[in-house]
């Protein structure tokens, strides 16, 4: 088992306030792991916030319960990992593969942006929960 040097978790309604809460968690996380370089912090933070924002903006409830956002972040010696989940959510619309949206497209850039910022992006769906797992290999570790 790889050592987890620092972690943060958030779960709450998928609303704009959740994005600010996740941002605050990330800010405090980086204080615990000052050896993580600024570029890794910035790109990983952007990818996590973009993922969470996509859930807040686009996730549709699968039933009566509202969609909840869950974010679990871990820092290991050479790896940053985030699990960004939409609980009580319908499956995402369309393919979960990055594409190059048309220049006129209003959306569809989020996944491509996220993939450009991190090392890997995987998608899991289980029991009404959509989860994107983002990892970034840290330059310091």
Mean pLDDT: 89
**How many helical elements?**
3
The percent range for helix content is: 25-40%
Overall 3D geometry? globular
Rg, alpha carbons:
15 Å
Describe the sheet with the most strands: 5 strands, antiparallel
Number of strands: 5
**Lateral arrangement of strands in the main beta sheet:** 1-2-3-5-4
Beta content: 25-35%
Keyword list:
3 helices, 33% helix, alpha+beta, 141 residues
Structure, described:
With 141 residues, the protein is of the alpha+beta class. It has 3 helices and 5 strands, in the order βααββαββ. It has helices at residues 16-32, 38-58, 110-117; strands at 6-13, 68-76, 79-87, 120-126, 129-137. A 5-stranded antiparallel beta sheet has the order 1-2-3-5-4, covered by helices on one side. α1 packs antiparallel against α2 and α2 packs antiparallel against α3 (110-117). It is globular, with a radius of gyration of 15 Å. The two termini are 16 Å apart. Keywords: ATP-binding, Kinase, Nucleotide-binding, Serine/threonine-protein kinase, Transferase.
Short summary:
InterPro entries: Anti-sigma-factor_SerPK, HATPase_C_sf, HATPase_dom. The chain is α+β, with helices and mostly antiparallel strands.
Secondary structure elements and their pairing?
Blueprint: E1 6-13, H1 16-32, H2 38-58, E2 68-76, E3 79-87, H3 110-117, E4 120-126, E5 129-137
Antiparallel strand pairs: 1-2, 2-3, 3-5, 4-5
Helix pairs in contact: 1-2, 2-3
Keywords: ATP-binding, Kinase, Nucleotide-binding, Serine/threonine-protein kinase, Transferase
GO molecular function: ATP binding
Protein name: ATP-binding protein
